[in-house]
Fold this sequence. Notes:
This protein is α/β, with parallel strands linked by helices. It has helices at 5-13, 15-22, 45-49, 79-82, 107-114, 122-125, 148-156, 171-180, 229-235, 314-321, 347-362, 455-464, 488-491, 496-499, and strands spanning 34-40, 91-92, 140-141, 158-164, 186-190, 198-199, 204-205, 210-211, 221-224, 240-244, 251-252, 258-259, 263-265, 271-273, 311-313, 329-333, 370-376, 432-438, 446-448, 452-453. Strands 1, 4, 10, 15, 16, 17, 18, 19 and 20 form a 9-stranded mixed beta sheet that branches. Residues 1-24 have low confidence and may be disordered.
Amino acid sequence: xxxxxxxxxxxxxxxxxxxxxxxxxxxxxxxxxxxxxxxxxxxxxxxxxxxxxxxxxxxxxxxxxxxxxxxxxxxxxxxxxxxxxxxxxxxxxxxxxxxxxxxxxxxxxxxxxxxxxxxxxxxxxxxxxxxxxxxxxxxxxxxxxxxxxxxxxxxxxxxxxxxxxxxxxxxxxxxxxxxxxxxxxxxxxxxxxxxxxxxxxxxxxxxxxxxxxxxxxxxxxxxxxxxxxxxxxxxxxxxxxxxxxxxxxxxxxxxxxxxxxxxxxxxxxxxxxxxxxxxxxxxxxxxxxxxxxxxxxxxxxxxxxxxxxxxxxxxxxxxxxxxxxxxxxxxxxxxxxxxxxxxxxxxxxxxxxxxxxxxxxxxxxxxxxxxxxxxxxxxxxxxxxxxxxxxxxxxxxxxxxxxxxxxxxxxxxxxxxxxxxxxxxxxxxxxxxxxxxxxxxxxxxxxxxxxxxxxxxxxxxxxxxxxxxxxxxxxxxxxxxxxxxxxxxxxxxxxxxxxxxxxxxxxxxxxxx
Length: 513
């Protein structure tokens, strides 16, 4: 299992069988025939939607004015703005302040910031105090004059204001939970793994080690056992793929090992690699990895099993989509400079990617039966005022939800009392995150308050194609349903797909008339 060269060979040998089963797959339980999940980076709900639908509308910024009857969200108002218990009050970040420092969003500090539900230690624990950053920035939020496209999508489609990160922590747990609902099961280790990456003695992932089954990993790496949704889709003949900017190699050595060298200048003015391995969850599993970043054997095979094993570059997605080979389920990951991650990206760079992608998707014939789900992997530690329900207690040295409120004090080791036999180190739900659903079948100008988490997206895919569950204590078994964001009767009406297109300007986020 530890020899990554065997993985591509197994994938190639399985191609004929996958093609045979694919013909039998594809039946859905809803009107949605194509799902596109756009998975972005590091945003709490309040960071993007704190005052929705009310924007300040200062001169020089794209204006936003909500339609009459727009529902409100569980955001920031009243004393949360004027008498907030944190060391600094929440404050609006202008469009000119789009580029910010990255905040602390590790598993333990995020729990400490919540201070047992008082939600009053964000500046101390998740605010970035490293020069030249100001830890009070963690309290900042944007409104519809900066995240203009997202607010306009909210007007035309549906959003959720009660979705939480499945567990606390940074990018890798968020990505892994998206596809498996299970961060336990580390079974391969390369390099020196620290306690803030894998809790000692638990085999539970809480940090950002890179995927073992990936030539382009550059630091400590791990592999995961167990199943993911790709395994379920393969077993049912569903065409699917993960498409990530920069996945296509820029070079190979004599042994065929890939180098991922594509880069862009980020929002901090520094070059950043387009492809970040720890944002590619399927590369943590031998069964779904493409270690050498091999290309698909043909455009027609994109979404099916060949040497690429369902892992692709973003360019492969558009090659498939615009030639009539759009997979049933597609996960899109922007190149890092456009993924919205504070530090090397920002909301305006993110908006350019999102709008260009969605404009293009809405021109496809498959738009009539499509659901686009925009979600984020973690909160970056940005302030959000809602204490998550703790549905998965944990008691390990890394847990600190009820711990001391003083910076530098050791964690308490407490996030409630777990049930006997429960996998440790999965304290959750974590912080609240945004959710946007764009579809001809989405409710219009609607806010869903259903309790959801990242694995609700996983569960929607499982249920829509009758895939079954991951099992082994995956969070998909308890995930809330996305069904409240849809109105399938309205979506089936003649002309619904044409009427529900919303073309925006990637620079301003405003509708193109």
